[in-house]
Amino acid sequence: MNETQSNLNVTGGAPYQYQTNVALVFDTSEPETVPFHRFYSAKKDDHFYSMSNNTPPDYAYEQVACYVYPSPICGSVPLYELYAVAASDTAYTVNETERNGWKTFGGYVDKPIAAYVLKPSR
Q1: In a domain, 61, yes or no
Q2: How many CB atoms lie within 10 A of CB 2?
Q3: Can you give the residue range of the structural domain that contains 89?
Q4: What is the mean pLDDT of the chain?
Q5: Most exposed among 80, 81, 113, 115, judged by the fewest C-beta atoms under 10 Å?
Q6: Between the CA of residue 9 and those of 19, 69, 94, what are the distances in Å?
Q7: Which range among 9-13, 64-68, 89-93 has the greatest average pLDDT?
Q8: Is 122 domain-assigned?
Q9: What is the C-alpha end-to-end distance of the chain, expressed in Å?
Q10: Residues 85-103: what's their mean pLDDT?
Q11: Could you give the number of structural domains in the chain?
């Protein structure tokens, strides 16, 4: 693992708790990577990440969270983005089973793939 890689954590506001490291990402710009911007909505108590720095409605720009691949490269996997309208919650995963569970039981719907990342070793 490159020393500039770090873990992308899934976290949220109350009643959410830290869940797990879902992906390996880069702390600094590396060849072929782009910034992955973090936004926060106090109204929704939700974090949102995007390769675009355009601030979505009801969100405030926070910072560049990390660097990711914009397309499949170097064994990367899709970072799925899902959204639950009823909960005003955005979720991210590289795990197909988890993704399908959120869609089936959690009321989440698929959004476009957020980025391509390296899967953490378990």
Answers
A1: yes
A2: 11
A3: 5-117
A4: 84
A5: 113
A6: 8, 17, 12
A7: 64-68
A8: no
A9: 13
A10: 90
A11: 1
